[in-house]
Design a protein that fits this description.
Helix content: 25-40%
Bound molecules: zinc ion
Order of helices and strands: HHHHHEEEEEEEHH
Strand order of the largest sheet: 1-2-3-6-7
Shape: elongated
Structural class: alpha+beta
Distance between the termini: 45 Å
Number of helices: 7
Radius of gyration: 20 Å
Largest sheet: 5 strands, antiparallel
């Protein structure tokens, strides 16, 4: 078996494309239209994995699929190649949040790391949310204040419309002439992080958000 080469958000992207094809199969559109939808989805997947070698390209190829069952099988097979979120220990997490002396730990043994782009847990007592994300091959952690909102909105990370929380993180940036200066960055994100992890298809925003919070200047 080829090594696991698909990131969770890429897997979501493939699932989304396959969803578009499967929807087109349900319509009464003629064969040419359906083929065009399939070709377009295929091209998007190929583009996402432009560097794939022959073995990976063969796995990603969906030209043999024609029925719903074929596509389900295709997704199931690719599911075996999704990289899990890296294992993380309590010590590692404590190191990422050195200033938080009463750090609330996630229940590590209960976390599902298999379909996870970012790991998140809440400290309800202090209205804090913690995010872990792999940045340049290393785990980075961000601590935010969070407020659940009663109105639905669009999540900044996965672009899904639904129940969101407002998160606000204080950046590490300091102004040398003003030690009290601080800058907070706010965002709406899904209140349910496991749903968010099932929907996220692109990590550009999440990456730049974490980078902005951790940047020291
Ligand atoms: Zn989301």
């Amino acid at each position: 078996m080829a090594e696991k080469f698909i990131k969770n958000h890429e897997f979501n992207f493939i699932k989304k494309q396959v969803g578009v094809i499967k929807n087109s199969l349900k319509t009464g559109a003629d064969k040419n239209v359906k083929n065009a939808v399939k070709d377009s989805a295929d091209a998007k997947i190929t583009e996402l994995f432009a560097d794939a070698d022959a073995e990976r390209r063969a796995l990603l190829d969906l030209s043999h699929c024609s029925k719903d069952e074929d596509y389900d099988q295709y997704i199931n097979t690719l599911g075996e190649y999704v990289q899990p979120f890296p294992q993380v220990s309590e010590q590692q997490i404590k190191k990422m949040f050195p200033k938080n002396k009463k750090l609330k730990m996630p229940r590590l043994e209960e976390l599902d790391l298999s379909r996870t782009t970012y790991l998140s847990w809440n400290d309800i007592g202090s209205n804090k949310k913690f995010l872990l994300f792999e940045l340049d091959g290393r785990l980075a952690g961000v601590e935010c204040k969070y407020t659940l909102l009663s109105r639905d909105n669009v999540c900044s990370f996965c672009c899904r419309h639904g129940q969101v929380a407002f998160i606000s993180a204080v950046t590490k940036a300091k102004k040398s002439n003003n030690p009290d200066y601080y800058k907070a960055i706010g965002n709406y994100i899904c209140s349910d992080s496991s749903e968010c992890n099932k929907k996220i298809t692109n990590t550009d925003y999440l990456t730049s958000y974490i980078e902005d919070v951790l940047r020291e200047k």
